[in-house]
C-alpha cells in the first residue's frame, strides 16, 4: 500500500503518491536548472507548473482522486523534456566533443533517470507467470521493463564461461523470493495495491488457461522437481548434522568453563587442545567460540526457515534478510578459520612448555627430551660435546611447516658447549657443503672435515635497527677436497675446537646438503 501526500501546485491542492511526487519534483527541478540560464526562465517554469496543474484538474474531473507515477509520466511526455523545450539537445549535438566531461555526466544522468523510471514503484520478485525454471530472469525483466530473452541469452553466455552463469542463477534463485500472493504480483509490476487491482489479479489468474507444456518442458520440470527434492533432503540431513554439532559444541563450552584446566576428562579445555589459547589469549578463544557457533547456527536457521516456507507455514525471507544472513555467515567463517590456526599454534606451544619438559630420556649418555632424541637419532648426529644445553631441536620449520623440527641449541647465559657431527660415505672428489643457519650472537660455526678441517662462522643476522633477529641465512663451505671414502661435517660452539668464544644464547642449523662439484686435482 503506497502513501499519498497532499501538494500545493499553483494554489490548488492535489493528492499524489510518493513515487509520482518524487518524479514530478525531479522534473520541475530539471526545468528550473535548464531555464535558469535564460532570461525570464522563472516565468516559463511557472507557466509550465500552471499547465501541469490544469492537467491534474482534468484528471480529477475524470474521477481520479490520487495522481500516480503513470499520470506524471504521461504529462511529462505531453509537455516535453527540459532539453527539448530549451533546444539544448540540438546544441549538444552540434557541439559534441567540445566538453567530454559534461557529456559523460549527462549520459550517466540519463542512464540513472532511465533506470529509475523503469524500476520506480517496483519490487524484485521471481515471476511465477512466465518462468522456465525458477522465474529469476523473467522477474528481472519485469523489474527493469525489458525483454526476458535478453537476460536469458546473457545467462547462457555466462554459463559458457566456466559455468559462471549457472552459479549466478542459483544464487539469485536462492536470494530473490517468488511473487506468490496477489499483493506481491502487483508490487512486482509496480501497480498500486488497491482492492480493484487485487480483484483483477485474482480474476486474471482464474481465467488464465492452463498451458500445455511440451514433452521437453515436462521432462525439464520433472528433473527440476527431483533436483529440488534431493536438495531439500540433503539440506535436512546437513541441518540435522549441524544441530548435533551445535549441541556437542554447547556441551563442550559448558564443560570447558566448569572443568579444571588440566583435567583429562573429555570436553575439558586440555583434552580439547584449547588450554594453550585459554592461558595465552582468552579473548581470541572467546571470539573463536562465538564465530564457530554462528557458523553452525546460521545454516541451521536458514535451512529450517526454507523448509518451513516450502510447506507454507511461514513466509519466505526477504532479499535483504537473506543477504544479511549470508554476509554474517561468511564473516563468521573468515573469523573462525584464521583463529583456529592461531589456537593450534598456542596448543603446540603449550604442549612443548608443559608436557615435553616433564618427560626425559637419554641419547649417547646425554639427558634430553624424547623429541630431541628422535631428531638427533633420525638425523644420524653424533654428540661429541653437549654441556649446559637446554634443548637440541625445536618445532617450527623456517619454511613455515610447523610439523618439522630443526637443530636448535639454547642457553640463557651463553654457556652452551656443543658439537655434533655426522658422516657420509662419498667418492673422492671436490665437494661443497651448504646449509641454513641462524644465531643470536657470535661464536657458533659449521665445519667440515675432509682431507682437512674447514670452519665457517655463522653470521649474526641483524635487522635494520641493528638488533638480533630470528632470520635464517644460507651459508656454504666451498672446495672441500676428499681423497678418502667419507666426509664429516657438523656444528660446534666449543671454543677449544673453533678457537672462538661463544657469545650466543641460541643458534640453529638445518638443511645440510653435500654436493660434489668436481674431481680431485690431477697430480703433476
Q: How many whole angstroms does the radius of gyration measure?
A: 40 Å
Overall pLDDT, averaged? 80
Number of strands: 15
Unreliable stretches (pLDDT < 50, length at least 5) are 92-98
User: How is the largest sheet built, in terms of strand order?
Assistant: 6-9-14-11-12
Q: What is the general shape?
A: elongated
List the helices and strands and how they pair.
Elements: E1 4-9, E2 12-17, H1 18-35, H2 41-61, E3 66-67, H3 69-79, H4 82-86, H5 88-94, H6 100-119, H7 136-144, H8 148-160, H9 164-175, H10 182-189, H11 195-207, H12 215-258, H13 275-280, H14 282-310, H15 319-354, E4 361-363, E5 366-368, H16 370-379, E6 382-387, E7 393-395, E8 405-410, E9 417-425, E10 429-439, E11 445-449, E12 453-457, E13 473-482, E14 486-492, H17 495-498, E15 506-518
Parallel strand pairs: 2-3
Antiparallel strand pairs: 1-2, 4-5, 6-9, 7-8, 8-15, 9-14, 10-13, 10-15, 11-12, 11-14
Report on this structure.
It is a single chain. Strand 4 and strand 5 form a beta hairpin. The longest helix has 44 residues, at 215-258. This protein has helices at 18-35, 41-61, 69-79, 82-86, 88-94, 100-119, 136-144, 148-160, 164-175, 182-189, 195-207, 215-258, 275-280, 282-310, 319-354, 370-379, 495-498; strands at 4-9, 12-17, 66-67, 361-363, 366-368, 382-387, 393-395, 405-410, 417-425, 429-439, 445-449, 453-457, 473-482, 486-492, 506-518. The chain has 524 residues and is of the alpha+beta class. The radius of gyration is 40 Å and the shape is elongated. Helix 10 (182-189) crosses helix 11 (195-207), helix 12 (215-258) runs antiparallel to helix 14 (282-310) and helix 14 (282-310) packs antiparallel against helix 15 (319-354). Helices cover 51% and strands 18% of the residues.
Amino acid at each position: 500500500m503506497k502513501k499519498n501526500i497532499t501538494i500545493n501546485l499553483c494554489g490548488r491542492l492535489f493528492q499524489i503518491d510518493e513515487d509520482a511526487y518524487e518524479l514530478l519534483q525531479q522534473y520541475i527541478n530539471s526545468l528550473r536548472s535548464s531555464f535558469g540560464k535564460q532570461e525570464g526562465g522563472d516565468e516559463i517554469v511557472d507557466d509550465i507548473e500552471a499547465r501541469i496543474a490544469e492537467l491534474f484538474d482534468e484528471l480529477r474531473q475524470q474521477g481520479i482522486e490520487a495522481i500516480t507515477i503513470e499520470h506524471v509520466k504521461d504529462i511529462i511526455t505531453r509537455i516535453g523534456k527540459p532539453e527539448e523545450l530549451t533546444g539544448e539537445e540540438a546544441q549538444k549535438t552540434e557541439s559534441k566533443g567540445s566538453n567530454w566531461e559534461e557529456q559523460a555526466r549527462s549520459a550517466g544522468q540519463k542512464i540513472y533517470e532511465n533506470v529509475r523510471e523503469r524500476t520506480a514503484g517496483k519490487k524484485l520478485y521471481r515471476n511465477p507467470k512466465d518462468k522456465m525454471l525458477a522465474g529469476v530472469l523473467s522477474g528481472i525483466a519485469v523489474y527493469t521493463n525489458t525483454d526476458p530473452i535478453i537476460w536469458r541469452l546473457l545467462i547462457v553466455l555466462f554459463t559458457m564461461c566456466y559455468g559462471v552463469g549457472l552459479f549466478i542463477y542459483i544464487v539469485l534463485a536462492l536470494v530473490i523470493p517468488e511473487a506468490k500472493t496477489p499483493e506481491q504480483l502487483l508490487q512486482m509490476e509496480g501497480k498500486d495495491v488497491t482492492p480493484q487491482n487485487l480483484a483483477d489479479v485474482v480474476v486474471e489468474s482464474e481465467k488464465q488457461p492452463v498451458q500445455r507444456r511440451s514433452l521437453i518442458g515436462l521432462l525439464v520440470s520433472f528433473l527440476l522437481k527431483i533436483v529440488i527434492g534431493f536438495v531439500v533432503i540433503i539440506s535436512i540431513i546437513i541441518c540435522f548434522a549441524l544441530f548435533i554439532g551445535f549441541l556437542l559444541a554447547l556441551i563442550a563450552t559448558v564443560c570447558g568453563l566448569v572443568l579444571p584446566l588440566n583435567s583429562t576428562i573429555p570436553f575439558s579445555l586440555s583434552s580439547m587442545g584449547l588450554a594453550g589459547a585459554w592461558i595465552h589469549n582468552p579473548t581470541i578463544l572467546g571470539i573463536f567460540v562465538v564465530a564457530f557457533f554462528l557458523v553452525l547456527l546460521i545454516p541451521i536457521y536458514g535451512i529450517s526457515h526454507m523448509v518451513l516456507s516450502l510447506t507454507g507455514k511461514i513466509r519466505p525471507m526477504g532479499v535483504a534478510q537473506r543477504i544479511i544472513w549470508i554476509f554474517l555467515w561468511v564473516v563468521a567463517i573468515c573469523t573462525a578459520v584464521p583463529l583456529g590456526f592461531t589456537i593450534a599454534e598456542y596448543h603446540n606451544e603449550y604442549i612443548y612448555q608443559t608436557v615435553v619438559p616433564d618427560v626425559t630420556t637419554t641419547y649417547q649418555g646425554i639427558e634430553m627430551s624424547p623429541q630431541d632424541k628422535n631428531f638427533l637419532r633420525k638425523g644420524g648426529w653424533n654428540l661429541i660435546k653437549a654441556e649446559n644445553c637446554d634443548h637440541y631441536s625445536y618445532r617450527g620449520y623456517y619454511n613455515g611447516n610447523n610439523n618439522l623440527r630443526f637443530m636448535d641449541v639454547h642457553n640463557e647465559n651463553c654457556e652452551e658447549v656443543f658439537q655434533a657431527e655426522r658422516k657420509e660415505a662419498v667418492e673422492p672428489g671436490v665437494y661443497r657443503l651448504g646449509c641454513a643457519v641462524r644465531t643470536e650472537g657470535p661464536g657458533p660455526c659449521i665445519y667440515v672435515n675432509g682431507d682437512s678441517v674447514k670452519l665457517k662462522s655463522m653470521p649474526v643476522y641483524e635487522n635494520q635497527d641493528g638488533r638480533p633477529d630470528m632470520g635464517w641465512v644460507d651459508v656454504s663451505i666451498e672446495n672441500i677436497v676428499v681423497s678418502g671414502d667419507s666426509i664429516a661435517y657438523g656444528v660446534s660452539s666449543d671454543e677449544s675446537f673453533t678457537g672462538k668464544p661463544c657469545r650466543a644464547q641460541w643458534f640453529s642449523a638445518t638443511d645440510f646438503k653435500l654436493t660434489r662439484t668436481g674431481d680431485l686435482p690431477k697430480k703433476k
